[in-house]
């Protein structure tokens, strides 16, 4: 079986690679095929950030820069893009890029193993903010470096470096020239032939035709899960269908009563759309993995994968989201929670793909989502609980609750919703509903939390939701600041 050619721009040159297997990762291609050993292999599962590289895609007359984990990114997925590694940033005369020089100036490296990944995340930050005249705040630096872990230096000098980049002489890329080169690599839907192993359709019709013909192929989007299967479970797939080139599924469409998020929209862009309508989701969106994972993974992939600890599904369930499944024979729409039949199992037919996620626009709701994990950022949830209430005259007109980490699938808390609906929104009602919620699921004990802990936390989060609905704010560590602590101490 043949593999289509991979073409991308690196160091202002066109790179063309042949005979790359469909499940070969970008990190393997960089280190083993191209000799770019500056990009490091750390965890090999998208957690540590040592393998971070930056990808560039044409976005109108500009380039969109995304820091991604190369260890769980399939090499074929970068076809048609621009690529930068840590070896590509210094000038031809050896002058360091501001992302590198600031790290040197601030003593932000010790053992050095994580440094190339930090440099690349800083480079992505530089291109998306500093090069556009925007300031890098401490908060921005913390969020955009959330996918990079350091074992020895500590984060203060690295955060200092992020803020110092703007103080160094500006380095600008020749974007018009780069865009001209990238135009030569515009994907044409190649690989649709039956004898190709990596199929990358560029239209929805071509995707549905490919799925109908190759029902045994592995569907991929950002590969933040499939990459783990390849690296950790040593799974190989003879044929892969990549949905990320499908133009229709890369869009977020706005309708009077809902937004429709295409299955190929990245998590970063999908959460930005959700936060635009519901600003209270901002903190949760930034805690959904590290930025490189959000830049690569897709909302459609997270939903279709159906992991019981996938954080987007409890939120989408609480918001009343539907999914649209499509095939050459038509489409069907159903509530998101009805998609799942068991652990990582769903009702999709072999010729179907998940195409759209439809999320209702906010309608005078009070909604929150809570993520409980051992690390604040870049960690998997032990429990995720999302709640949305519609109150009328002090009573619960409608309750919608999604839960993750407490069952074999992401689930709707149906009994708890029933216990709340029609009742006065009071502490007594909440206390009764807390008992129902704790009894509604039978969670497992694992390395992240015990079953009893998960059940107890479910009820506690409903209590927290009640307190926040009453206007209380300083009830969790996330809301605390040094100013408020000093004020309370005085």
Characteristic key phrases:
single chain, 490 residues, alpha+beta, Ubiquitin-like (UB roll), Uridine Diphospho-n-acetylenolpyruvylglucosamine Reductase, domain 3, Enolase-like, domain 1, 3 domains, 5-stranded antiparallel beta sheet, 4-stranded antiparallel beta sheet, 17 helices, globular
List the helices and strands and how they pair.
Blueprint: E1 6-10, E2 13-17, H1 26-33, E3 52-59, E4 62-69, E5 82-84, H2 98-105, H3 115-128, H4 138-144, H5 156-164, H6 175-183, E6 198-199, H7 204-213, E7 218-220, H8 226-232, E8 240-242, E9 252-254, E10 258-262, H9 267-277, H10 282-287, H11 291-296, H12 299-305, H13 312-318, E11 322-327, E12 330-335, E13 340-342, E14 345-346, E15 353-360, E16 366-372, E17 383-392, E18 395-404, E19 411-412, H14 414-420, H15 427-440, H16 451-469, H17 482-489
Parallel strand pairs: 6-8, 7-8
Antiparallel strand pairs: 1-2, 3-4, 3-5, 9-10, 10-15, 11-12, 11-15, 13-14, 16-17, 17-18, 18-19
The assigned CATH architecture of the largest domain is: Roll
User: What is the name of the CATH class of the largest domain?
Assistant: Alpha Beta
- Give the radius of gyration: 23 Å
Strand order of the largest sheet: 9-10-15-11-12
The biggest sheet, with number of strands, parallel, antiparallel or mixed sense and barrel status, is:
5 strands, antiparallel
Distance between the termini: 72 Å
* CATH fourth-tier homologous superfamily of the largest domain: Beta-grasp domain
Q: Strand pairing plus helix content: what structural class? A: alpha+beta
Mean pLDDT: 93
Helical percentage: 25-40%
Total beta strand runs = 19
Fraction of residues in β-strands: 15-25%
The CATH topology assignment of the largest domain is Ubiquitin-like (UB roll)
Count of runs of 4 or more consecutive helical residues: 17
